[in-house]
Amino acid sequence: MTQPFELPSFYVPHPARLNPHLDQARAHSTAWAREMGMVEGSGIWEQADLDAHDYGLLCAYTHPDASAEALSLVTDWYVWVFFFDDHFLDMYKRTNDREGGKAHLDRLPLFMPADPVTPMPEPQNPVEAGLADLWRRTVPSMGEDWRIRFARSTRNLLDESLWELANIDAGRVANPVEYIEMRRKVGGAPWSAQLVEYAAGAEVPKEVSGSRALRVLMDAFADGVHLRNDIFSYQREVEDEGELSNGILVLEEFLGCSTQEAAEAVNDLLTSRLQQFENTVFTELPALFAETGLDPEDCARVMAYVKGLQDWQSGGHEWHLRSSRYMNGGGAVADPGGDGDTANWWDPFAIGGIGGIGTSALDILRTGAMRDAPAGPGGVEPAVRRVRSHGHVPFQRVGPSRLPEFRLPFPLALSPHLDGARERVVEWAERMGLLDDRPGLPGSAVWTAESMRDYDLPLCAAGIHPDATADQLDLGSAWLAWGTWADDYFPLVHGRTRDLAGAKLANERLSLFMPVDDDSPAAEPANALERGLADLWERTADPMTVDARRTLRRAVESMTLSWIWEINNQVQNRIPDPVDYLEMRRATFGSDLTMSLSRLGHGQVVPTEVYGHGSMRSLENSAADYGCMVNDLFSYQKEIEYEGEVHNAVLVVQNFFNCDYPSAVRIVDDLMHSRLAQFRHVAEKELPVLCEDFKLEPAARERLDGYVKELENWLAGVLNWHQGCRRYTKADLERHFRGAAARPTSADPAGALPLGPTGPGTSAAHPGVAAHAGGAAAAVGGAEVPRPGAVPGGPTGLGTAGTRTPPARIG
Description:
By secondary structure, this protein is mainly alpha-helical.
């Protein structure tokens, strides 16, 4: 069969190594699969299938340092998970039997009891038999925290198979953000990451297992594994199985491009995620170790885990090049002996006959030496992408923000108490000190009464909560005011001076003003930031239960901690990776906070586990992403030209796709409206199924319907506020930033420390200059202004032609 595209040149920074216990693992897993009933009679695999897939080779590559016993057990896990996938495909996906698939999946948690001594039911098929055996053999040697995390990952891997089945049944291709989120669960790489802990003897300490750094490492690892698999498995999944959950297909549909271009774009995203992994290791782990006081032994375990994940990426790549399961230009025939001793059959850039185990890591040298780096997502070199992410020149003149047509179908309603709230929130801000000059710095107030009236945050609150009483609207307006003011405050006070330590200290103190029980009174506020939060917490949390307060505090902490992430990127002058940006943007925008406030009002009518379901998270995330991207479109000039920001979806798209501003706006517009379509799809198609799955009572179903309406109000209120406030037009910006230093295009913005390299010989690190092309998008408040281009060589690549045309804080 002809391959549908040429394999791209992969970024493989670490050499693959082969475990010496390969033969033992192969023999053991073959005998185990036969014992569990997976071959010869299962109707799924014959012995030839198991031999050709060679999961022993996969595990020997991905766990090169595991002991013989550990390698055999891990190999059994991979035999089981691939058998589960093929079994589910044949039994339920091909027949679109969702009811049967759900019944099958509902039994599997019975074979993963939290307490290892809990009895299990009698297995009824090879999937159940294999899981029961593996669980008994694995969990006794691991701690409780790992057992809980691994059981959750396994359940996610199994349960979210229904999401894939639902998409096939609907003939629906996911949008890129939805796909990345759900692929992590369906694809099982978080599950693989936790098996790395077992195989490497590197169980991650509980003190840091839930931290952002470890979460990002797992997510970036997972995305790398899944995106690589999508490239190799496209032909089998899409052309043979009719699968719709494949990253190349997703980008083909979203970008309207060829299969080859989509494959290159997926590979670029794979590279970006691997570089996100590296950035997290080098910039976030050292700080995490210091802040948590982790002892040297625990630090070593974390680093052994990191090494294990790196080994997995490189080994998984080598295995994909050899397994007959995938499109690889040769498959198993390239290694007829099955011993991993390969030639250069797959490598068009082989240099001087170099080959053998692990030599794909030389791609870093080969691709840089053998061909030019093309523009756009048609194959951006890793080094080029890394330099471009750190080479942004701040304070570029970009002209008025370009706005697409906003096709939001939800009607707007406003609270009748809006006018009174507008005055009362300014009075509240004055009492809290939000409008005062900073100590010792005359004229340094973050906001004035004039600017606060211009920003008109009660307008946003009135649209988000149209049925609010006067007191409720005042409280909602104050939350919006505090969050938006604080988001302006952190970069002004800590960002420009690169005071990361001071920002962390200020953020850590905020938890002192959010006590969760009556026996822990709030601390005494020392400044306006703390005073405002303390007042809001007292007014909001007083009638809540302890559990509700704890949930609310986590949501506030998620938002405030995200501001540290932003400053960390400013220190590096780093435009974020697109996946990391979109996920963190929900926190910086305060989406989790406002949605949790709404959910807490639902009481116990809706079971807590419903809100943790993938469909509910998808509903909330898609709404949040739409609101975040609305904000980024309106605030582009403010953030890029006036504030020197690197956190804006349009800029992230420009950097990733190597395209101009108008093209980036069109891509963001497409993504924003695909997220809106996702919101409506979940509300109309997935929530009724969720209600059936959880057997919800009528009152709970009515409450969920009301929550969907609340989110629709949220979306309408956010868009209306952006269109009606005086914060983003050219005239607004000239008024609010008057008196500030002239906006520079050099690396010395208003006395700030240099952003990026400066001095003799550093000009090559900065992008070239080009006037951007015109487009159909409207401009905010004035004529278009030529700007320095953000990309060398002008607009090229995908997206430059033919592309389809209350938050607790606001950007």
